[in-house]
Amino acid sequence: MNSAPQFAEQTASRLEIPDMGIWPVTARIHGTRLLEGDIVIDWDDGKSSHFLALWLREQCPCTICHSEITRETLIDITDIPVDIYATDCRLDDTGYLLVTWSDQDHASRYHPGWLRANCYDDWARAERGVQLPTWDSQFSVPEFDALDVLQEDETLYDWLVALDTYGLTRLRNVPLERGSVAHLAARIGTIRSSNFGTVFEVVSKPDADSNAYLSVELPLHMDLPTRETPPGLQFLHCIENGADGGESRFADAFHAAKILKEEAPEVYRLVTTVDYCFQNRAMDCDYRARGPLIELDSNGNPLSSRINTFLTAPFTHLPREDVKAALEAKHYLMRLLNEDRMRVQFKMAPGDMVAFDNRRALHARTEFFPNTGHRYLEGCYLDRDELGSRLRMLERAKLGAGQVTR
Ligand code: OGA
Ligand code: ZN
Ligand code: ZN
Questions:
Q1: Can you give the residue ranges of every domain in the chain?
Q2: Class of domain 143-394
Q3: Are 122 and 49 in contact (CB under 8 A)?
Q4: Cα distances (Å, whole numbers) of residue 123 to 36, 49, 216, 405
Q5: Which residues form the Gamma-butyrobetaine hydroxylase-like N-terminal domain (predicted)?
Q6: Distance from the alpha carbon of residue 145 to the mean position of ligand 1, in angstroms
Q7: Which atom from ligand 1 is nearest to the alpha carbon of 363?
Q8: Is the CB of 365 under 6 A from ligand 1?
Q9: Mean pLDDT of 293-309
Q10: Is the CB of 212 under 6 A from ligand 1?
């Protein structure tokens, strides 16, 4: 076992860390040891990280294994023997971990902050697998000034953290021009177009190809459940809302999942495992997709919902008794989502924009009456990837890549 040298500053050089991190050292390496060819690090806070040799070798940040230009892997990873093992591991005098390998005399050097940030022992995965907070009718929707979001990265960051955490935010003071929704989207990333356009207009019209373009009530739903991967974000910018009615309502599908897990485990099992079917039969397109109403991640936390009762396609892939149970489970979930205790409701004023996670915060609209005034919204979609990337870029600029938290 080696004990850690006294190092002044542990920073990673640009060339050695393919994801360009300056990794903070949140714990120091107390010692390193080999365990059947794998590498174990004992940290000075009493925790240990056990790195599988093959995992660590694949991540070697050296400039033979990675391009200095692209920071992408250059080697053919299948050239690494799957039974590779470490022949030596120790700390160098700057506090980096040095490993020599059984294969090809290769040696690798790892930043201690990177090792800590990426270790995957049970305790580390448990720390990362914490469920997001969920909300109900008591939620006060986080609000931000759109001009600040457009001009200041600090406010942009705060807005995006709120969007990522709660899946529902409201911007005020959005310029009333058409196209403003696209300017706000551009603060995050690339818009995801659909058959409804790059920016779509929500207005009642005679040749509607979506219930959204009628004036009827829209029950709680997400948009585009008919796509293999529905868009992760939706923005709706209110330019005019002069007609009676037309209020906006939201409910957190992840909160419903939490309640079902406790109170109705069989319903929870069905809505998280059965594939439900969706279709959108327009005059010039025909989209279909299926998936669970609530999809769980590998930690068992809700990852995504796929809920829309006006784009339901028939089940054709299940025996009758399974269909009955699946439909009853859907009714149970929808009744829960529609309870008053679940709902946040308000009427958007001109200059408001709601930005929400389309695969989490279900949205609804009460009926409106076009003969009483004009209602005009513009909307667009983005993928969650854009939000994740922008957040990481803002954190990288603010804190250094090692502190990217998502
Ligand atoms: C939609 C929609 C809400 C509204 O266009 O998909 O849900 O308030 N619109 O009109
Ligand atoms: Zn290497
Ligand atoms: Zn919608």
A1: 2-127, 143-394
A2: alpha beta
A3: no
A4: 21, 9, 50, 17
A5: 39-115
A6: 22
A7: 7
A8: yes
A9: 97
A10: yes
